[in-house]
Design brief:
Helix content is about 70%, strand content about 0%. The chain is mainly α. It has a two-stranded antiparallel sheet with strand order 1-2. The model has no long low-confidence stretch (mean pLDDT about 85).
Length: about 270
């Protein structure tokens, strides 16, 4: 339960946290969604991740530690790869023994915009680019394809986690203003880059073709050649746009779209279209 207490008993600022403690909390941040639930979302994982810092600031077994743990167990939900940004800011306020309601407000303000920013950075930009580079290697039979993909993705996410923890802790609440000042423009730009990459992947790796031929004496008309003459990769483009329409306008889930592609592939092969 949330405490009604608005200030800590000991208002003397604590000693700054050392790098070892900050790094320990970065590793703990990997467990953010380990106890995810629909009442408080990531609150349990959040408290587990930030606990070493709270122990160093308030001292083990103190009433202030109990109070801090109580309000840090309130509803929390943010992008799991950018959570250390919020951790650094909150820890900076905890160290200064700021007003508890202020810490609550800053925690909510910091966690909110990170969802769109994190999706734009990782799911719309990093994953398509890394997958585009490495999938060609995997298709060619190289085992380095999936290995390189995992290396690129994890090196980036861990670099971001460690950087944001130290950067936001040192800046405190100023970090929110710096990160969110152009958040809308940044998210839009990253999303556009991600869409561009997806389009390039569709053009380069879209391999769906038709084997349908129209009888024409000794020289049957190959439908695929006609389609390529009009617009190369027309079938992969049509499939991509169709799936986009189903998900965007009709509310289809990715799983439903995958099932649709599976059915289309099987039926198309049976009737001799694919």
């Amino acid at each position: 339960m949330a405490s009604n207490q608005t200030t800590y008993t000991n208002l003397t600022p604590a000693q700054p946290l050392d790098k070892k403690t900050l790094n320990k909390m970065v590793w703990r941040s990997l467990n953010l969604q380990g106890s995810f639930n629909y009442e408080r979302m990531q609150a349990n994982g959040w408290l587990y991740g930030i606990l070493p810092g709270l122990l160093a600031i308030h001292g083990e077994g103190t009433d202030d530690l109990k109070t801090s743990m109580g309000h840090n167990l309130e509803f929390f939900n943010t992008h799991p790869f950018l959570v250390t940004f919020v951790m650094g800011i909150v820890l900076s306020l905890e160290q200064q023994k700021a007003d508890i309601n202020t810490i609550r407000a800053v925690r909510v303000a910091a966690m909110g915009p990170l969802g769109g920013i994190g999706d734009a950075i990782f799911w719309f930009t990093l994953v398509p680019i890394a997958a585009g580079i490495c999938s060609n290697m995997a298709i060619a039979g190289s085992i380095m394809g999936p290995i390189l993909f995992l290396l690129i993705f994890n090196l980036v996410q861990f670099a971001v986690r460690f950087f944001l923890m130290h950067w936001s802790y040192n800046l405190g609440t100023k970090a929110i203003e710096l990160l969110t000042a152009n958040a809308k423009e940044f998210t839009r730009a990253a999303s556009m880059l991600g869409v561009f990459i997806v389009g390039a992947l569709t053009s380069n790796y879209g391999g769906t073709t038709t084997v349908l031929e129209i009888p024409n004496g000794e020289s049957p008309i190959v439908l695929q050649s006609i389609l390529d003459g009009v617009l190369p990769k027309m079938i992969p483009l049509a499939l991509t746009l169709g799936l986009f329409f189903l998900m965007k306008k009709k509310g289809w889930t990715p799983v439903a779209c995958i099932a649709l592609l599976l059915v289309l592939g099987i039926l198309g092969a049976l009737v001799g279209f694919f």
